Amino acid sequence: MNFSKTTSYAISVLSFMAKHQESKYSAKKLNELMEIPWPSLRQLLTILSKSGFIFSTRGRNGGFQLNKPADQIVLAEIIDSVEGLNVFGTCIMGFKKCPFDHTCAMHEVWEGTRNSILNVLNNTTLDQLLEADKSH
Fold this sequence. Notes:
The chain is mainly alpha-helical. It has helices at about 5-20, 25-35, 40-50, 75-80, 100, 105-125, 125-135; strands at about 55, 65.
């Protein structure tokens, strides 16, 4: 399973801001530092702001900053705000409905795997990612 580019960018931006919580960054500075395409970054900052992960301050010393502590930001919330968690509710075989009396050959395997993935995403915070990153 891979996250979309937008979700990957969101996790990267929020991780960066969590590492530098005391600082504010303009969209331009984030673009320079993180090399995220400008249109994607602008759209992402709007989504992250509306979702309450970051806030912005206008003016000379303004910029974007994390809105809540990294230990209160759960990965599932980030994914849900950016692309939704509905990808986990779809059939891994691509069927709109499971054939063969409501289930496909992969149904039980996927259901267990999906639940495990959702459990990890619902129980992993941004600060845990940062801690894991420090140990590598």
